[in-house]
Automatic annotation (TrEMBL):
<keyword id="KW-0862">Zinc</keyword>
<dbReference type="Pfam" id="PF02127">
    <property type="entry name" value="Peptidase_M18"/>
</dbReference>
<dbReference type="InterPro" id="IPR001948">
    <property type="entry name" value="Peptidase_M18"/>
</dbReference>
<keyword id="KW-0479">Metal-binding</keyword>
<dbReference type="GO" id="GO:0005737">
    <property type="term" value="C:cytoplasm"/>
</dbReference>
<comment type="similarity">
    <text>Belongs to the peptidase M18 family.</text>
</comment>
<keyword id="KW-0645">Protease</keyword>
<keyword id="KW-0031">Aminopeptidase</keyword>
<dbReference type="GO" id="GO:0008237">
    <property type="term" value="F:metallopeptidase activity"/>
</dbReference>
<dbReference type="GO" id="GO:0008270">
    <property type="term" value="F:zinc ion binding"/>
</dbReference>
<keyword id="KW-0378">Hydrolase</keyword>
<dbReference type="InterPro" id="IPR023358">
    <property type="entry name" value="Peptidase_M18_dom2"/>
</dbReference>
<dbReference type="GO" id="GO:0004177">
    <property type="term" value="F:aminopeptidase activity"/>
</dbReference>
<protein>
    <recommendedName>
        <fullName>M18 family aminopeptidase</fullName>
        <ecNumber>3.4.11.-</ecNumber>
    </recommendedName>
</protein>
<keyword id="KW-0482">Metalloprotease</keyword>
<dbReference type="GO" id="GO:0006508">
    <property type="term" value="P:proteolysis"/>
</dbReference>
Amino acid sequence: MSETLNADRVTRLCDFLRQSPTPWHATVSMAERLEHAGFQRLEETANWQLMPGQRYYVTRNDSSLIAFQLPAGPLSELRMIGAHTDSPGLHLKPNATQHAAGWLQLGVQVYGGALLAPWFDRDLGLAGRVHIRHGDGQLESVLLNVNRPVAMIPSLAIHLDRDVNAGRSINPQTEMAPVLLQSDTAKLQDLLASWLEEEHGLRAVDVVDFELGFYDVQPPSLVGVNQELLASARLDNLLSCFVGLEALLACDGQQGALLVANDHEEVGSASACGAQGPFLGDVLKRLNAQVGGASEESLIQLIQSSLMISCDNAHGLHPNFRDKHDEQHGPALNAGPVIKINASQRYATNSVTGGLFRDICREAGVPVQSFVTRSDMGCGSTIGPITATEVGVPTIDVGLPQWAMHSVRETAGTHDVEHLACALVGFLNRARLS
């Protein structure tokens, strides 16, 4: 198994995770790597002049990204990889300032299906997007990343709640406001002004609006005697964003290829930049208009000749909770990517797309696993079925197995990073999608 550990790739992954506390930061990080590799930035509000053999990328809402390479000849099919940039977390309310017992706290709302208990007693930073007004009245959007412990949600001592280990529920309205400053008068606006000056040198600006959230500032780490495990925040699903980007940058560039990283998957994908929105469809229409057949019929032909591999992490077999898995479908960490299957179409995989991915893994020398949830348990979903429904592209749902999904700190296998990267490079280089 040791031969599958690519130390350089894992180092790049850890750097990406550190630099990406929010979907906006993740998108910036991916865009910088794409530009360094020669991808040209496109603006959705401008006319596109696409050339065969060239590589481009475009963003929407600054939190979703689509990058693509065009073949030297006609565009008749695309090898697509899908992932999402968002993760569950604690986002600030608009009027977040509140005081209790002589402390400044900030009110939060839960984003997505977060595991709440692991957020207590963590060193929390704050990051996101802030909209400011300059003295001349001009509006500007800037990213903010307070990358140090400025807040904490302290637990209540067990002496004051003897039943806490008996499974007491957590109230996010009354029990999860982070503590920031010992003060009866301080306000969030004052802190934002200080942080904007510190990070961007901005003075005498008004904060008009913001989208900010807390995050655990503990950096990613390799865990285990032989460093078999990677522990980090936001592995779901920045791990897939990273591996998809690595594959796009490493492929031979001979085939039409596309990477889409959507925001808002954790809350249902129903947004202009989410998988249920028109972002991918808009890009495909423009590709078809310029380098495809330029007709509605050719657009349908392009989509139906393509394949989407939707990459979102899977539930790995937990050594302490083996009964939570079907006996025949408990994916092991470091044993390869997982094909996710659900008869009720919570995953988009069918035998055609699943068989093709198995063949891709065979050619790449990569082990592959299957996941089906227990028949007496509910099944989650991801962007795969949504993309297949909205766009119509044949789709398969895969992912790397992990533990503690939706926790503030998740765990995956270090060897699996290389497993999935090799499989996706093989997919993007594959001459035929059949």
